[in-house]
């Protein structure tokens, strides 16, 4: 008995959901999306991501990240063609940022006693002489960084190997995906992984979805370890992080977390501040030459799919135009943690889909 499933969206959440669903040979899966890996468009967030593992969830909401780390770790160790490498991470805290205004979804990362210390390897608190100037404390652990230009096509390849079919489509209503299976048969379940697109998509129209604009500078200069700081003095929407992607993917300097800002064009003034902050916290990035020593590959802007109510990961029954019921399993609203929660969330998608098909 075959179960026909359509996955709407080909970002990291949609692709990982399709991959885990395809491990069940009874599932016949079609991925439909406006944008596919290889595209660079402001509507398509996944290519612009760092992408790394710096836990952002609270302990009570940490299932998705806890469940994803072992699989990303396995891929890093055993599957070099996925484009992931280990990187030591250093997180620096400022006491004054604990009560700073604005939206700071990564605040749990900067906890003085974080839940992830028992999950990520080699965790330790930094000594006073290891903390960078202007900061009060910090920690170190083993993390990883993903080259998205390699990893997203790798996910597509793994899906293809399992028989998943990919189709370009522009959806105006999530229920329309029911008729887009490559089999020509109606889908029994639709997986909605349309991210920020869920704000305007018919049948969903989730107004809790807003962009969290992230501006970055990608440079050729390599730097280790990965660095993240709890805040900056340049404004509540600006932040500092540095991560070097695997396999020559360049070093990402960030950044901003500007909720509600739809602007797709990089701001040159913000770019200068990003580069200056990066060189200040990591002088070795340019060997002491300042921002003039940075070899810039590109300036970029991505719109993180931020959801004010948190990630939406649930099944919903909708009535189609033909009067027939269609079940949608939603998997969107991951903000800036889509990669580091991808396998945990996709695992839940599989549970929900199986519950619908068997229930």
From TrEMBL:
Keywords of this protein's UniProt record, alphabetized?
FAD, Flavoprotein, Oxidoreductase
Say if the entry is tagged with keyword Cell inner membrane.
Answer: no
Q: Write down the required cofactor(s).
A: FAD
User: At which positions is FAD bound?
Assistant: 194
The protein here is known as FAD-dependent oxidoreductase-like protein
Query: What Gene3D superfamilies does UniProt report for this protein, alphabetically?
Result: D-Amino Acid Oxidase, subunit A, domain 2, NAD(P)-binding Rossmann-like Domain
Organism, scientific name = Trichoderma longibrachiatum ATCC 18648
Any one GO CC term of this protein is:
cytoplasm
Q: Which family does it belong to?
A: Belongs to the DAMOX/DASOX family.
Q: Which domain of life is it from?
A: Eukaryota
Q: Which sites bind D-dopa?
A: 304, 336
Q: Which Pfam families match?
A: DAO
The record, for PROSITE patterns, names: DAO
Biological process annotations from GO: D-amino acid catabolic process
> From which residue to which does the signal peptide run?
none
């Amino acid at each position: 008995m075959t179960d026909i499933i359509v996955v709407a969206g080909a970002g990291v959440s949609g692709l990982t959901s399709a991959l885990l669903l395809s491990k069940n040979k009874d599932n016949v899966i079609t991925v439909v999306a406006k944008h596919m890996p290889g595209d660079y468009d402001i509507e398509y967030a996944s290519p612009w991501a760092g992408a790394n593992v710096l836990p952002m969830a609270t302990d009570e909401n940490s299932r998705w990240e806890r469940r994803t780390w072992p699989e990303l770790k396995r891929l890093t160790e055993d599957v070099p063609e996925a484009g992931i490498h280990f990187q030591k991470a250093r997180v620096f805290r400022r006491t004054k940022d604990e009560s700073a205004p604005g939206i700071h979804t990564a605040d749990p990362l900067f906890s003085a006693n974080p839940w992830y210390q028992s999950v990520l390897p080699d965790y330790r608190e930094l000594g006073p002489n290891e903390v960078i100037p202007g900061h009060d404390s910090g920690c170190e652990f083993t993390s990883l960084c993903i080259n998205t230009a390699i990893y997203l096509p790798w996910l597509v390849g793994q899906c293809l190997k399992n028989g998943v079919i990919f189709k370009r489509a522009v959806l105006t209503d999530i229920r329309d995906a029911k008729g887009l299976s490559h089999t020509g048969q109606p889908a029994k379940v639709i997986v909605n992984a349309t991210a920020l697109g869920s704000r305007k998509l018919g049948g969903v129209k989730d107004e809790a979805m807003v962009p969290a604009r992230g501006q970055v500078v990608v440079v050729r200069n390599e730097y280790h370890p990965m660095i993240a700081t709890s805040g900056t003095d340049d404004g509540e929407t600006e932040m500092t992080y540095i991560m070097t992607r695997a396999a020559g993917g360049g070093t990402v300097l960030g950044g901003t977390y500007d909720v509600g800002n739809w602007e797709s064009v990089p701001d040159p003034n913000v770019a200068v501040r990003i580069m200056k902050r990066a060189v200040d916290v990591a002088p070795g990035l340019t060997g002491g030459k300042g921002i003039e020593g940075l070899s810039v590959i590109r300036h970029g802007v991505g719109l993180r799919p931020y959801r004010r109510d948190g990630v939406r990961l649930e099944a919903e029954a909708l009535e189609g135009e033909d009067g027939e019921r269609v079940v949608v399993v939603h998997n969107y609203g991951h903000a800036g943690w889509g990669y580091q929660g991808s396998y945990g969330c996709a695992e839940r998608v599989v549970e929900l889909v199986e519950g619908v098909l068997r229930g």
